[in-house]
Structure formats: C-alpha cells, structure tokens
Design a protein that fits this description.
Blueprint lengths: L9 E2 L8 E11 L5 E11 L8 E5 L4 E7 L2 E2 L3 E4 L2 E5 L4 E10 L9 E5 L2 E5 L18 E11 L5 E4 L2 E7 L4 E13 L5 E4 L2 E8 L5 E8 L8 H18 L7 E7 L6 E2 L4 E5 L12 H16 L8 E2 L5 H21 L4 H23 L11 E2 L8 H34 L3 E2 L1 H11 L9 H4 L5 E9 L4 E9 L5 H4 L8 E8 L22 E5 L3 E6 L7 E4 L8 E3 L4 H10 L3 H24 L8 H12 L5 H8 L4 H6 L6 H18 L1 H10 L10 H17 L6 H13 L3 H17 L4 H14 L3 H12 L9 H8 L10 H14 L1 H4 L5 H14 L3 H8 L10 H17 L3 H11 L1
Parallel strand pairs: 2-12, 18-19, 19-21, 22-24, 25-31
Antiparallel strand pairs: 1-23, 2-3, 3-9, 4-8, 5-6, 5-9, 7-8, 10-11, 12-15, 13-16, 14-15, 17-18, 20-21, 25-26, 26-29, 27-28, 27-30
Helix pairs in contact: 1-2, 2-3, 3-4, 3-5, 4-5, 5-6, 9-10, 9-11, 10-12, 10-14, 12-16, 15-16, 16-18, 17-18, 18-19, 18-20, 19-20, 20-22, 24-25, 24-26, 25-27, 26-27
Organism: Paraburkholderia xenovorans (strain LB400)
GO biological process, one term: proteolysis
EC number: 3.4.11.2
C-alpha cells in the first residue's frame, strides 16, 4: 500500500501498517476553476508500530508541486513525481506544510476536486484525495481536519466542508471565506468540499438525547421543490438508527448536496454527503415510485455510514465490505421496517424479494465469471473495480446471516460490542466477526470462510419419509458445482450455512417441528438448521404425514438450492406456503423451468407450447385478493431475460427472448379478462401518494397493462395506455404508459401513438435532466424488431443535443441501458451491439475510466454464450484491450480474455 507507483497487483497478504501517521490536517483552498491553490499543513509522526522508513512518501496525482516546509522552514529535500512526493531525512515528529495546485475544471474523471455546472465538488473514495493534495491517502491514516475555503462570493456564495461551521466572513476583492472543523478522526477518503450557487431546504430536529441538529439538503435553485422527500427520508433514517441500534447523529449539522455529474450513487463524507441528483430529487411529476423508494434507501444508506464506515472505518480496501456490506444490510432493514415495520411479514417480504432478485441476477452472475472474488478480496489491480455486487450485496447477505443465527437481539448485542471496541478505529472484517461471536458466546471461526471463499454455494437436498416411524430426514450437501476458475481456487472447505426450513402438510398448513433428540416440538414452524459439514442429515420426528419441504425460507443464506420439486408441488407451494418469500420463489422456479424448456425448443426451431397448469397457477395469483398488490406484481413478473440466459448451458439471448415473449403472450390471451379487471381495480385516483400501499396498486395495474399489450390484437392496450399517458398525474403511470406504447409499436412496425407520446414526453420535461434520462432509457430498452433494430435508435440518440457522454447519468441512461438491459437487441447475431460497446468503452476510457470500467463488464461472461456470439464478443474485447489505457478497464478486459 505504501507504493504510490501502484504495482500491477496489490495483495491483502502484503498489508503493512503505515510508516508515518498524521494526527491533524489544516487545509486552505483558494478556489479558482482552472487553478486552485491548496495549502496543506499536517502534524506528522512516525508510527511506533511500523518499521522505520528512510523517507516519507506521499501519494499525489495530477498536481503541480509548489513548495514544502517543515516546522515553518522551507524544506529542500522534497521531490515530486507522477505518483506523489518523496521527502528525505524527515524528523520523527514535525509539522509539514505543502502548497500545490490542481485544475478542477479539466478533471473529467470526477475523482478528486472537479467542477460541475459551474460549482465545485469532490469525490475522494477510494483514492481521489491524492488528486487534491499530497497525502498518505489510505484508510488506516486517520486525522482531524480543519478546512478553510476562499472563493469569489458572487460565483460561489455557498462554501461547505465536513463537520461544524466555525466562522465565515468577507475578504477583499469580492471574495469570502468559511472555516469548518470536523472533530472526529477520519481517513482522507471521507473528506469533502462543495462551493457554488446552491440553496437548501432546512429542518431542525432533536436527537434522542435532546440535542438540536440542523439538517440541510443543498441543490441548485430550480430543484428546491424536489427536496422534501429526501429530507423526510433523512429524518426517518436518523430516528430509525436511534431506535434500532441506539446510534445518534454526532455532529451539530448534517448536510446532503446534490450534483448531476457523479460517478456513483452517493458518498458518505462525514457530515457532508454528496449525492447524485438521481437519489435526491423527486416530486410526483418527475419521479417514479421506484425513484422515491431508491431515494429513501440511498439516503438511509449514506446516513447509516456515519457509524458503520465513518466512526468505525476500514483498515485497508480489502475490508471494503466491512462498511459496505454492513451498511447495505442496514439500509435493507430500514426499508423493510419503513414498508412493514417489524411485524408485517408480507410487506417485509416484498422488500426481501426485490433485494434477492438483484442478488441473483447480478451477483450470482459475477460469481460465475472472471471477476469472481470473495467478499473480502485477496488482490486487486484497481480498487475502483471492486465496488462490486459481491462486496455490497453478497456482503449484506453475510451480515444478515449473523442476524439469522443470533436473532435481532443477539445481532444488536454484537453491534454494541463492535462500537465499544472499535469506535474511532480502522479495523477489519475479522474484528466485526469477533465482536458478533464474543457478544453471543459463539465460535465463528468457520464463518470466516464466507469472507474468503468466492463463488455461489450450492446446497442439494434429499428427503426421506418413514411413515411407520413418523420420521422425516433432510440430507443437505454443500459444494460449488461448476465454479468459475477465479472462484474455484479460493474454496477451502464447508461453510456454516443457516438453512431455514418449514414442513407443509397436505392441507397447506405448517407442521410442528421437532428434531431428533428434542423433548417436544417448538412453537415456531420455521427452523434454522446450522449446516456446517459437507453433508449433514437432520431428522424430524413425530411427523404424522409426509410433508412438502419449504426450503431456505426468507432466503436465509446466499446459496442455490437444488431440489427436484415437481410442477404440481411448486404450484402447491405457490398457493399455500406461509413463508411469503418461498411462495414467490415457487412461482419463479415454476416459470424458470418452463421458460428454459421453451428456450431450448426455440433454439432448435421446435414449436412452442405452454402447459395449462402454468397458466392456472398464474391465474390463481392474479385473482387472489388476499395477497397484497405489491406481492402479486412481483409473483406475476417473469424472470428476466438476462437471468434466464445465465441458467442455460450456452446462453442464447434470442431463444430466451422468443420463449419469454411466447409465455407473456400466452398469459395475456388466456387471462385477458382478468388482466382487464386488475387494471381497472387497481387505479389510484386522486392526489399521488408515494406510500408502499399506493405504489403496490400502481405496480400491479401497470404490470397488467404491459401484459395486455401482448394480446394478439393490442389495440385495446394502446387505447388504455394512451389514455393513461394523457391523464397521468405522476411519473410512474406516465412512463409505464409510454413503455407500453413503445413495445406495442415495435410489435406492429411502429405507431403514431408511440411517436406522439415520445415527442410530448420530451417537450414536457426537456428542462428536467433526470426525466430526460428516463426518455433515453425507455428508448434504449424498447423491444425493437428486425425492421427497426434498437441499436439504430441508440446511435441516432447519441447525436441528440441532450446527449452528453461526459455526464455519467446520461451515458448510463442510453449506452448502459442498451448494453445491459436489452439483451435480445444487444446480442444481435450480426455483432453490431458488440462493435458499438467497444467504441463506447474506448471513448469513455479517455474521459472517465471508472464509468468505462463498469460498461466494460457487460461482456465478461462472453465464454458462456453460443459460438457465433462468442466470436463477436472476443473480437470486441480484443479491440478494447488493444486501445484502452486506464488500469480500470484493462483489469476488466484482461481478466475476461485470460
């Protein structure tokens, strides 16, 4: 980590403590877009727990070195180079003052200090601070920061940094200043500053201990009317963290700032969170139900980092999931509690289903490819590439398993001990595991393998019922199947898997559970089995009838369960399972099995047929008014094309698309009257409400509309969609209607209704960048046809005046949407999608390597596709490998090609 030249591979095993520590930092900024002068005064001392170094080496990139002084005297033995600053013969303890210059206006990487929309912003995680000033830019160097900002008052009337405002005032020549202090030690990646023409929505609240706190959401003036939901989400987050974990806001104020040019979703800088506008701005006319839910979740996530990431941070970047996996778990629990409290299991299950869908579609795919890595990676080339689904989403599942094992109270005890031991420290995943183990009196040594082994575990299940003895045996076997080579080499032994199970009788009710050796059955009808061996048998006694097992309830571990349910058994579970997650899961298994069979037939040109029992199972869910609308919408949504293609021995996107469209059309025609009834019954007249209940009604209604568009004669759906578009008082209904019109148009070679709605949508919202992002994305993900391939639409839209490749949101809305969310069109047999992908990765690499690297991952699973598609993907990867220059992209494409 001390090598600022950044070696080709950085390994966790090579970690060494820093040779020097920095106790205090005083930063002074004279903010000018093309030439910002930074004066950095630090109290530096040798680390008594590290080997003595001959010199002090600080990281620095794209900086102009001006001067160095030690204890107030000029220091001549300072040598600047491309990756930092080398200082020879420094004393053991000293004050170091460095002056340097950076150019924020030219910083298109959006890492470090940059200008967006005429305002200054920063992004320092993971290694952006070294683009601002020379520093020991690593997470285990923690210091207190005082920051003075100076700038033109007319151009930058608002000056913000971390912590509490100490003073502000005017300076000569129309300039002004503000001085901020963060009293808590933090690593440099949590530093932030913002300067510009901004306005704030403010609230004052009292913490649980009675202290008054100032909350601010800062935005550009024209966006102030879209901040209420973000503020409410922040207040809810503060209250939830106090109630659930006893954690209070520790600063006098907490600020959120929205910026339209941002590589990530948001950043948890201490007390000054900087957000992508996508996760702040919302009102009914511009934001969908999904946007409202995402804003609440992301605001919660970044606020919860104040303790899990800021007060206790990572020792090194290999421990990234220590903060991210833990905080994703916390934001998931927050969202579930906001939807259903602690007791409404059906509402909580809806959130659980949504999270697991993302995990399976994206993280399981990552586990199967060349970028497979453990939750705690062993090595990396570019740390920005390891902000992954594995670190975040699988990491959150690892944290969830602690709560599954110990319950909410036991998990809270472990969290309390974790903070008592490590507040103000930079620690490791093992420190967190030890705190949970010690607080609950458990040995969790085996559990460490969840952090060090890559790949998605598979649990095969065998069952046997002895009617005479009334014994039911469940034998679990764990392994990894055909794991990717990158994952296989990390797998050392069996995991501790909390495996939740229930047994269902012939009447559809849960049976009492009594394991062999227990005196009597417990009250709970779900039992968490601690599965610790490669193969292990659990025997239930006093089982009066042969049950149907309900396996891995609430998705109690991030594994793939292999059990040969019949179609009739899956339909029974879909109708009766008391566990809402497994009820949904049964429907997904049933649909996946049928869709994969149909895809196999489509690939060989065999006519397609759908069994009536599948239609009947879907009909029961569609018409079951005892189920919540939100649950029914999720249960009736077919598995995605991308997920289905990954389940095939050779991915064939065209065959999957044909199969999925055939099933949608069959369900649409067979259940036409039911879809129409549901559409009418779940309208939400009156003023828009972003509540879970109202959102569920809209989701089910709009799903029904999308199915009606699959009818042999979609005229009725087009009429309904056109009327819904015209009458909509919210973005959820308007964008859903536009999507239906676009897809119905594709099926019929184009339509005037679709084009009129597209044109109207743009005219209405051309001054709303986030809505225009939706306009681009809807066109990039539309169905398309042989006569009108979507890639032609995408290429044309890239020349549109509203498109800007330098803006990450705009690039994601058009290019990423096409490449990642429209598989049937992207994987065209002529290879046009791959050629387009290569050109865009190369273009993005030149201006923003982080965004380019994320796009580069679209082809990392190329070896799993049919031979004709593989050849086109390999050629595109080789083209990119030959031309890109950044470490970010090279790591992705070289691993893919290796």
């Amino acid at each position: 980590m001390a090598d600022t030249a950044t070696p080709n591979v950085i390994r966790r095993a090579d970690y060494a403590p820093p040779a020097f520590l920095i106790d205090t930092v005083a930063l002074e900024f004279d903010l000018v877009p093309e030439r910002t002068v930074v004066r950095n005064t630090m109290r530096v001392r040798r680390n008594p727990e590290a080997a003595r170094a001959a010199h002090l080496e600080l990281m620095g990139e794209q900086l102009e070195f001006v001067s160095a002084a030690i204890d107030g005297k000029p220091f001549a033995n300072a040598h600047a180079h491309d990756h930092g600053l080398l200082l020879d013969n420094v004393p053991d303890q000293f004050e170091l003052t460095l002056t340097s210059i950076c150019n924020p206006a030219a910083n298109t990487t959006l890492s470090g200090l940059y200008v967006s929309g005429g305002n200054f912003f920063t992004q320092c995680e993971a290694e952006g601070f070294r683009r601002i000033t020379y520093f020991l830019d690593r997470p285990d160097v923690m210091a207190t920061f005082t920051v003075t900002l100076r700038a033109s008052k007319a151009d930058y009337p608002v000056l913000l940094s971390n912590g509490n405002l100490l003073e502000e005032g005017d300076l000569p020549d129309g300039r002004h200043f503000a001085r901020w202090e963060d009293p808590f030690r933090k690593p440099s990646y949590l530093f932030a500053l913002v300067a510009g023409k901004l306005v704030a929505l403010e609230e004052r609240v009292k913490s649980g201990s009675g202290k008054e706190k100032l909350l601010q959401v800062w935005v550009e003036p024209h966006d102030l009317d879209k901040t209420r939901h973000a503020m409410d989400s922040l207040i809810h987050s503060i209250r939830w963290d106090e109630e659930r974990f006893g954690l209070e806001l520790d600063l006098d104020r907490f600020m959120i700032v929205a910026v339209s040019d941002f590589n990530m979703g948001a950043m948890e800088n201490k007390g000054l969170n900087i957000f992508n506008t996508k996760y702040v701005l919302a009102n009914p006319e511009t934001a969908t139900d999904t946007d409202f839910a995402n804003i609440e979740a992301v605001v919660g996530h970044e606020y919860f980092h104040n303790w899990t990431g800021n007060r206790v941070t990572c020792r090194d970047w290999f421990q990234l999931s220590l903060k991210e996996g833990l905080t994703v778990f916390r934001d998931q629990e927050f969202s579930a509690d906001m939807a259903g409290g602690a007791t409404d299991e059906a509402a909580r299950a809806t959130k659980r289903i949504e999270d697991v869908r993302v995990l399976r579609q994206m993280q399981f795919a990552e586990d199967a490819g060349p970028m497979a890595h453990p939750v705690r990676p062993e090595s990396y080339v570019e740390i920005n590439n390891f902000y992954t689904m594995t670190v975040y989403e699988k990491g959150s599942e690892v944290v969830r398993m602690y709560q599954t094992l110990f319950g909410r109270d036991g998990f809270r005890k472990g969290m309390d001990l974790y903070f008592r031991r490590h507040d103000g420290q930079a620690v490791t995943c093992d420190d967190f595991r030890h705190a949970l183990a010690d607080a609950n009196g458990r040995d969790l040594a085996q559990f460490e393998r969840w952090y060090s082994q890559a790949g998605t575990p598979r649990v095969s299940v065998r069952t046997q019922y002895d009617a005479a003895q009334q014994r039911y045996s469940v034998t679990l076997t764990q392994g990894y199947g055909e794991a990717a080579p990158a994952a296989r080499e990390t797998q050392k032994g069996p995991l501790l898997i909390p495996f939740a199970i229930g047994l269902i009788g012939k009447d559809g009710r849960d049976l009492p559970l009594q394991l062999e050796g227990e005196a009597q059955a417990g009250k709970a009808t779900t039992r968490v089995l601690e599965f610790t061996q490669t193969e292990q048998t659990f025997t239930f006694v006093n089982v009066a009838q042969e049950p149907l097992p309900s396996l891995l309830r609430n998705f109690s571990a991030p594994v793939i369960v292999e059990y040969d349910y019949s179609a009739q058994q899956l339909a029974f579970l879909l109708a009766h399972d008391s566990d809402p997650f497994n009820r949904w899961e049964a429907g997904q298994r049933l649909a996946t099995r049928e869709l994969l069979t149909l895809a196999g037939r489509a690939a060989t040109g065999v006519p397609l047929q759908l069994d009536d029992s599948v239609v009947a199972a879907f009909a029961r869910v569609l018409t079951d008014e005892t189920l919540s609308p939100a649950f029914r919408e999720l249960a009736l949504m077919l598995p995605s094309e991308a997920y289905l293609a990954e389940q095939m021995a050779e991915s064939n996107p065209a065959a999957v698309h044909a199969a999925r469209q055939f099933v949608r059309k069959r369900l649409a025609n067979a259940l036409r009257s039911d879809w129409l009834n549901v559409y009418e019954q779940h309208r939400t007249p009156g003023a828009y409400e972003a509540t879970p209940e109202a959102s569920g009604h809209r989701a089910l209604k709009n799903l029904a509309l999308s199915y009606l568009a699959e009818l042999d004669d979609p005229a009725e759906a087009v009429r309904l969609a056109s009327a819904q578009y015209d009458a909509a008082n919210n973005m959820t209904d308007r964008s859903a209607a536009l999507s239906v019109l676009l897809n119905a148009s594709a099926a019929n070679g184009g339509s005037a209704e679709a084009q009129q709605a597209l044109d109207d949508f743009y005219r209405r919202f051309e001054k709303e960048p986030l809505v225009i992002d939706k306009w681009f994305a809807l066109q990039a993900t539309q169905r398309g046809s042989a006569q009108r391939p979507v890639i032609d639409v995408v290429r044309r839209l890239m020349t549109h005046p509203a498109f800007n490749l330098k803006n990450p949101n705009r690039a994601r809305s058009l290019i990423f949407s096409f490449c990642a969310a429209n598989p049937a069109q992207f994987h065209a047999e002529d290879g046009s999608g791959y050629a387009f992908w290569a050109d865009q990765v190369i273009a993005l690499d030149a201006i923003n390597p982080q965004v380019a690297a994320r796009l580069a991952r679209s082809l990392e699973l190329w070896r799993r596709f049919t031979p004709a598609l593989r050849d086109g993907m390999r050629a595109a990867l080789e083209k990119v490998a030959a031309q890109v220059k950044s470490r970010d992209v090279r790591e992705i494409v070289e691993k893919a090609l290796a």
